[in-house]
Specification:
By secondary structure, the protein is of the alpha/beta class. Helix content is 31%, strand content 22%.
C-alpha cells in the first residue's frame, strides 16, 4: 500500500488533526504486529476497544486512525490523527482506495459455503507455477477485517490477487464486494452453512450472490447455478457454471487416485491426468473447476496459447492446506486424515466418502457442525457413515447421529473424547478421519493420534 494523506481523507471522509504525513505505507489494527512507521487503526468491538492500545505504539506510529470517541481519549498523545466516524468502515474504504490503484491486477474474489479455501490454494499454486506474480488470502483473513488486511498487502505489481470472502451475517457480502470490486467472482458451492445468521438456505443464496454483481465474469461451482435460479436470482450473462456448460469447462473423472481431465478447445479435445494423494472426489471437482477458471482467464489474455496440459502440470503439486484432509503419519504407522479445521454437511460427507474409498480399517472421529440453524438436526442425522468400521462422535449435535448408529461411540465434548481415545489402539491398517467445525477444537485429537512432527492448523 502506498496512499497519501489526502487519499486516505477522501476514501474515509475523515478529518486530519496535526501535520499530515506525505505517504502512508501500512495500516495495522493489531499492536502485536506493529512496526515503526506503520499507521495504527483502532477497531472497536462489543468486547474490546482498540483505542486503548494506541499509547503502546504511539511513539513508533506515523499516524493514528480513530473514531470520534476514541480520538478524544488520545488528547495526551502527540500524534497526527485521522478522525473517522467508524474505523471498521474506514478500514474497508482505505482498502478499496488501494484496490482502485491495482489497475494491472486481476482481482479474483472467492466465496462459498465450502471449497473456497481449497479452490483459492489451487489457483494460487497454479498461477505461481505458471510464472505469474500472485497475492492471496492466507489463514482465515476473509472477513470485514481480514479482507482489507489482505488487499492492503497486495503489491501494485501483482498480476493476480485471489481474495477469499467469508460471511456469517446479512449485509457482510455487499460490503465485501464493494471493498474488493472483483474482476472475476467465484462461488465454489452453497449449502446451509452459516444459515443461522443468514436466514436459512434462501438467505445464504441471496447473500452469496451479491459477490457476483459488477464482476467482468463469474465462475459457479456445482449446483450453484441451480440454486440461484431456484431462488429467482439472475445469473450474470458472463458466467461459467461447471454443470451447465460442459463444453466450456474442464470435465473430470476419478479412477482411484488418478484424476483424468478433458477440455475442448478449437475443435480439439485435450486431455491430462494428475495423481492425487487420496481418492477424494471433491478434490477432483475443485481441481477441474480451478483448471477451468485458469484456462478461461489465461486464454483471454494470451490469445488461447495456454493448454490443459500447461494448467494440469501447474496444479499437479497442489497440497491441501493444514487441517483440510491433510494426510499424516499416526501412531503405530496408522494414517491420520486431519480435516479438523472446519465442517459443513457437504464437506463432512465428502470427507467420509473419501475415507470409505480407502483400503484397510476405516475410523471416523466426527464432531459437531456449527451454525446450521434449524437444519442442524437433519444435517447431522442424515450423514452417511455406513461404510465406516469404527465411529466416534463428539458434541450435542452429533448425538442424533449416534442415536441412529448404536455401534458409534458418543462423547459430550472434545476433552471426554481425548481421554477415551488415549486408551484406544490403532495399527498400520487403520486410517483415521478427524473432522468437525472449528469450534470443536479437534486438533487436540490430531495431536493425540499423530506423530509429534505433524503441523496442525491454527
Amino acid at each position: 500500500m502506498n496512499l497519501s494523506a489526502a487519499d486516505m481523507q477522501r476514501a474515509t471522509g475523515g478529518c486530519w488533526h496535526g501535520q499530515q504525513p506525505d505517504n502512508l505505507n501500512k495500516v495495522v489494527t493489531d499492536t502485536r504486529a506493529f512496526q515503526s512507521g506503520d499507521t495504527f487503526l483502532a477497531l472497536r468491538g462489543p468486547n474490546f476497544d482498540g483505542h486503548t492500545f494506541a499509547a503502546s505504539v504511539a511513539d513508533r506510529a506515523i499516524a493514528l486512525i480513530g473514531d470520534h470517541t476514541g480520538v478524544k481519549s488520545w488528547i495526551d498523545l502527540d500524534n497526527t490523527v485521522l478522525e473517522v466516524s467508524d474505523t471498521l468502515q474506514a478500514f474497508g474504504d482505505i482498502a478499496h482506495a488501494w484496490r482502485q490503484r491495482l489497475t494491472n491486477t486481476t482481482v479474483i474474489a472467492i466465496s462459498g459455503s465450502y471449497g473456497k479455501t481449497s479452490l483459492r490454494s489451487i489457483l494460487e499454486t497454479g498461477f505461481i507455477a505458471l510464472g505469474l506474480k500472485v497475492a492471496a488470502t492466507h489463514a482465515n483473513l476473509n472477513n470485514l477485517i481480514g479482507v482489507p488486511q489482505t488487499l492492503l498487502a497486495v503489491p501494485n505489481d501483482t498480476e493476480i490477487a485471489i481474495i477469499e470472502c467469508g460471511i456469517s451475517e446479512t449485509g457482510e457480502m455487499s460490503r465485501l464486494a464493494a471493498i474488493v470490486q472483483p474482476d472475476i467472482a467465484i462461488l465454489s458451492g452453497i449449502s446451509a452453512a452459516h444459515s443461522d445468521g443468514l436466514g436459512g438456505l434462501a438467505g445464504v443464496v441471496r447473500e452469496k450472490s451479491l459477490l457476483l454483481e459488477g464482476a467482468d465474469w463469474c465462475g459457479l461451482g456445482a449446483g450453484v447455478a441451480d440454486l440461484l435460479e431456484a431462488h429467482h436470482i439472475s445469473i450474470p450473462t458472463q458466467s461459467m457454471a461447471v454443470d451447465q456448460a460442459p463444453a466450456d469447462n474442464v470435465t473430470w473423472q476419478l479412477n482411484g487416485c488418478e484424476l483424468l481431465l478433458s477440455y475442448q478447445q478449437h475443435d480439439c479435445t485435450q486431455q491430462a491426468s494428475i495423481i492425487l494423494d487420496l481418492p477424494a472426489a471433491h478434490w477432483g471437482s475443485n481441481l477441474a473447476f480451478a483448471a477451468s477458471i485458469m484456462l478461461r482467464h489465461l486464454n483471454a489474455v494470451d490469445n488461447g496459447k495456454v493448454s490443459l496440459n500447461d494448467v494440469a502440470t501447474a496444479i499437479a503439486d497442489w497440497q491441501p492446506p493444514a487441517g483440510r484432509l491433510r494426510s499424516c503419519v499416526g501412531k503405530n504407522d496408522s494414517v491420520v486424515l486431519d480435516d479438523c479445521y472446519n465442517a459443513n454437511p457437504v464437506s463432512m460427507q465428502a470427507a467420509i466418502d473419501t475415507l470409505c474409498a480407502l483400503d484397510g480399517t476405516k475410523v471416523a472421529i466426527l464432531g459437531d457442525m456449527a451454525e446450521l440453524g434449524a437444519a442442524s438436526a437433519s444435517a447431522h442425522a442424515e450423514l452417511n457413515i455406513s461404510g465406516v468400521d469404527r465411529v466416534y462422535l463428539i458434541g450435542s449435535h452429533m448425538q442424533v447421529l449416534a442415536a441412529r448408529h448404536k455401534q458409534a461411540n458418543w462423547f459430550a465434548n472434545t476433552d471426554d473424547a481425548v481421554a477415551a481415545l488415549a486408551q484406544e489402539s490403532f495399527t498400520s491398517n487403520d486410517t483415521v478421519l478427524i473432522k468437525a467445525s472449528r469450534s470443536m477444537a479437534l486438533e487436540k485429537i490430531v495431536q493425540l493420534l499423530s506423530s509429534p512432527e505433524v503441523a496442525h492448523a491454527l
